[in-house]
Amino acid sequence: MTPEDYLMQVKDISMSIKCLEGELQDAEKEHDTEYAEDRCEKLRARIRKRKELLSRIDEEIHSLPDNRLSALLGEYYIRGRSWEEVGETIGIKDSKWVRTRLHEKALKLFAAHYPKYFL
Fold first, then answer.
1. What share of the chain is helix, strand, coil (3-state, %, to 5)?
2. Residue 13's closest CA among 49, 73, 62, 54?
3. What is the C-alpha separation between 42 and 24, in angstroms, rounded?
4. How many CB atoms are located within 10 Å of the residue 24 CB?
5. Is residue 89 a contact partner of residue 99, using CB atoms and an 8 Å limit?
6. How far is CA 38 from CA 15, 45, 49, 55, 65, in A?
7. Is the N or the C terminus of the chain less surrounded, counting Cβ atoms within 10 Å?
8. Tens digits of residue pLDDT in 79-98
9. What is the pTM of this model?
10. How many CA atoms lie within 13 A of 34 on its CB side?
């Protein structure tokens, strides 16, 4: 797994949480049965697990020693902002430079800071 693949999980996790929350709402509407209660507990556990992973990735991004690169990763992966918006946030007008050069530098910093994920 590359650092980019690892961070892209955030978008998939957010989508998965929304889906699971919808399933949970449907399950909660079922009549009080042992099956429905068991299903709700399993769904809550899955949601909790995904939120914990999302929180961990958020913490990892924001603990990087370079604030500008941390902001770049946070804006793009956590907030889902475009490269133009990321550039505005970090004060750089050239979004292509942000997307290519700075993003690459941020990913390398992330990989160096968390080598256990990228053996």
1. 80, 0, 20
2. 54
3. 9
4. 18
5. no
6. 23, 11, 17, 26, 44
7. C
8. 989 999 999 999 999 999 99
9. 0.80
10. 0
